[in-house]
Amino acid sequence: MENKSVKINTMGSEVVDGFECKPKVLDPNKPIMHYKNILFVCVDKRCSSEGSHKKADELRELLKEMQLDVGYDRMKVSKSLCFGACRYKQVVNIFSNTSENGLEKHNNIWLKQTHKYDIEKWKELFNSLKNDMDLDKFEQIKMKVF
């Protein structure tokens, strides 16, 4: 008889065979995976630059290189279609896990014209988020609160 090792995900749940983290039994009382920050990157054709559909994938690889895809400072990059902010070209919307890190100032920040960011600018942004620094040096869309 074959002895298979049991795979356990980072939340302590046994994983379905062939998956990295999908639990065999869903426990609705367990929290979702911890991310300090989630960045939603617009990859829609209307406002993004040529090749921008690959941007989220490139940023995920950069997070891995910077070791920001694991641990307490873990960040996630997700693709998004139109935010309705096309006049700002490619935008990124940042959400912070405020219940975990208490950083209301980093929650729901909109950065504009991120299609102009080079690799060093992205690294600077990721390090600023990791180190809880102000993001004032990054051009933001000022949102009107009603």
Characterization of this structure:
With 146 residues, this protein is of the alpha+beta class. The chain contains three helices and four strands, in the order βαββαβα. It has helices at residues 55-65, 98-101, 119-130; strands spanning 37-42, 75-80, 92-96, 109-111. Strands 2-1-3-4 form a four-stranded mixed sheet, covered by helices on one side. Strand 1, helix 1 and strand 2 form a beta-alpha-beta unit. The longest helix has 12 residues, at 119-130. The protein is elongated. The mean pLDDT is 80.
Structural class: alpha+beta
* Total discrete domains: 2
**Series of secondary-structure elements, N-terminal to C-terminal:** EHEEHEH
Question: How much helix, percentage-wise, in residues?
Answer: 10-25%
What does the main sheet amount to? 4 strands, mixed
CATH fold category name of the largest domain = Glutaredoxin
**In angstroms, what separates the terminal alpha carbons?**
65 Å
pLDDT under 50 segments (min length 5)? none
For the secondary structure, the number of strands is: 4
- Radius of gyration, rounded? 18 Å
Shape: elongated
Instruction: Average the pLDDT over all residues and give the rounded result.
Output: 80
Query: What is the annotated CATH architecture of the largest domain?
Result: 3-Layer(aba) Sandwich
Fraction in beta strands: 5-15%
Annotation field: number of helices: 3
CATH class of the largest domain: Alpha Beta
**Assembly category:** single chain
Strand order of the largest sheet: 2-1-3-4
